[in-house]
Structures are given as structure tokens and as C-alpha cells.
């Protein structure tokens, strides 16, 4: 089979993938479907939380911000990654390659930062409910959201535009990896380890610890409620109300824990390769790493599905959006769940 190049008339042009249409077309169908599901699903979450006043809560503001991250990943990053993955060519210029790579790293990192702060929010809701509203106020939530956007942005764009990701391996990168018409995401030993720790391992470990604590406290609360079932009538009513509130908080924590688990499952293969590839002389094939990138992207696709499956308020909001009821007067004041 004759080798094809991204730019036939230019020396050191990258090789195109020599796949037949039997492989290329299913890949495009899968990736386009993933992109559409990601964009539509997260847009539905954004519209739901932004439109309905009952959903204007600290946790939902964080979810709104995270859905915006996933929406941007699906609409601004994944389409270009699709062309690069299928064709093994980059037709959009070197500058946009750096912008795309920076944005990709930034949004992926921002997503797990949001999940970290959501776990903190759930910790106070379940473990310290009496002081929850004072601790998770507008200022603290705004600070979490700003941090989740600004820190990953500075980290990603600084790393890529200052070429810190290839520092120490410039000779290997320019001789063995770089070619005209390519846009490879490459990390040296140090930068790969640092990026994985900052973007994934450290915040992921924090989340696991926080949710472990939430699980222990929630089990303790459940036993406490069960032990107080034989109280006075007034106390029984009060206990029931507390039980409903705590049950809702535990369910929210469980749901967000599942979202976190999906994130870890989706992104662990990619970040494991990123952290270790430089130490094993880059023996992992680029096509494998690229496949792990798309598995990571699926996390942004799955999040709205988790909301749709577990959150009754999202199911009701989604029905109103699909049937156009959000355009009715005072639809924003619709009660989606009982307090």
C-alpha cells in the first residue's frame, strides 16, 4: 500500500492513516454521535439549571459550571480532535494546534477541579448540615467556580505555549515525534508526571477521601434515624423531616459519587499513560493514547446521562424543555421537586 502524506509536496509531512472507508466511516459515526450527545446533553443541563429558579442552589451552580466545561469540550475541542484521530493530520495551523491542545488540557483539568469542589459541597451538606448554608454561600461557591476555571487555564496555556511539556526532550520530540501537519500531545517525563498529578491524581485522591468520609457519616446518620424511630409524636414528625432532608442529601452525594467514579474510570487510562510513557521510552503507540483520549472524552458525554437517570428534577426539566413548556409564562417558577 502506497504511503499517503498529509501534505504531499512538503518534506517531513506527517503520514496519513491508511485506513479503508470500512474503518474510517464507523469511526466518524461514533465520534460525531459522541460529540452530539455531549453537546445536547450538557446543553440540557445548562438550560435546566439556568431557567428554573428552584434549581438555583450552590451545588447546582457548580454542576452548571461543570456542564459548561463539558459543553465547551464537546463543541470546541472534540470536533478538531476527531479529524486528527481519523486522518492523523492537522489542517488548522500550528498556532491553533497550541490553542486546541491548551484548551483540551484546561477543560479536562477544570472538570475534575469542579468535581473536587462538588465533593466538598456534599461533605458539608451531609456531614455538617446545620452550617451548610453559611459555609456554602454565594461567595464561597463563586470562589470555587473561579478557581476551577482560572487555575487550569493558567496551567494549561503556560505549559503549552512556553513548551514546558517538551522541556528536556526537545531533541527526541523534534526528531522522532514532530512532523508537518501533525498536532501530537506530547509530554516529557517531568511534565507528564506533573500534569497527571495536578490534573488527576491529587484532586482524584482528595475526592476519594472526601466521599469515603461522606459514606461513613451517612451510614452513621442512617443508624441514628433508625434508633430514634420510637420517639414522641412531635419528635417523630421532626425526625421524619430530618430523615427526608438527609436522605435527599445522601442521594445527591451518591449520585455525585457515581459521576466521580465515571470520571475516574474514563480518564485513568490516559493519565496513567501520560505519567509513565516517558519513563518507558515512549513505547505506548500513539494510536493507543489517542483511543484513551476519546475514552476520557466520554466522561463529558456520560455526566448528563447520570443526571437523567438519578435526578428527578432533571427528568422533569428535560420533559419541559423537549415539549417547549419553558417558553410558557412563569415556567421558571415551576416546582420540580418537593422541599
From TrEMBL:
<dbReference type="GO" id="GO:0007186">
    <property type="term" value="P:G protein-coupled receptor signaling pathway"/>
</dbReference>
<feature type="transmembrane region" description="Helical">
    <location>
        <begin position="61"/>
        <end position="82"/>
    </location>
</feature>
<protein>
    <recommendedName>
        <fullName>Trace amine-associated receptor 1</fullName>
    </recommendedName>
</protein>
<dbReference type="InterPro" id="IPR009132">
    <property type="entry name" value="TAAR_fam"/>
</dbReference>
<feature type="transmembrane region" description="Helical">
    <location>
        <begin position="255"/>
        <end position="272"/>
    </location>
</feature>
<dbReference type="Pfam" id="PF00001">
    <property type="entry name" value="7tm_1"/>
</dbReference>
<dbReference type="GO" id="GO:0005789">
    <property type="term" value="C:endoplasmic reticulum membrane"/>
</dbReference>
<keyword id="KW-0256">Endoplasmic reticulum</keyword>
<keyword id="KW-0472">Membrane</keyword>
<keyword id="KW-0812">Transmembrane</keyword>
<keyword id="KW-1133">Transmembrane helix</keyword>
<dbReference type="GO" id="GO:0005886">
    <property type="term" value="C:plasma membrane"/>
</dbReference>
<feature type="transmembrane region" description="Helical">
    <location>
        <begin position="138"/>
        <end position="161"/>
    </location>
</feature>
<dbReference type="InterPro" id="IPR017452">
    <property type="entry name" value="GPCR_Rhodpsn_7TM"/>
</dbReference>
<comment type="similarity">
    <text>Belongs to the G-protein coupled receptor 1 family.</text>
</comment>
<keyword id="KW-0675">Receptor</keyword>
<dbReference type="InterPro" id="IPR050569">
    <property type="entry name" value="TAAR"/>
</dbReference>
<feature type="domain" description="G-protein coupled receptors family 1 profile">
    <location>
        <begin position="41"/>
        <end position="307"/>
    </location>
</feature>
<keyword id="KW-0297">G-protein coupled receptor</keyword>
<keyword id="KW-0325">Glycoprotein</keyword>
<feature type="transmembrane region" description="Helical">
    <location>
        <begin position="200"/>
        <end position="218"/>
    </location>
</feature>
<dbReference type="InterPro" id="IPR000276">
    <property type="entry name" value="GPCR_Rhodpsn"/>
</dbReference>
<keyword id="KW-0807">Transducer</keyword>
<feature type="transmembrane region" description="Helical">
    <location>
        <begin position="25"/>
        <end position="49"/>
    </location>
</feature>
<keyword id="KW-1015">Disulfide bond</keyword>
<dbReference type="InterPro" id="IPR009133">
    <property type="entry name" value="TAAR1"/>
</dbReference>
<feature type="transmembrane region" description="Helical">
    <location>
        <begin position="292"/>
        <end position="314"/>
    </location>
</feature>
<dbReference type="GO" id="GO:0001594">
    <property type="term" value="F:trace-amine receptor activity"/>
</dbReference>
<keyword id="KW-1003">Cell membrane</keyword>
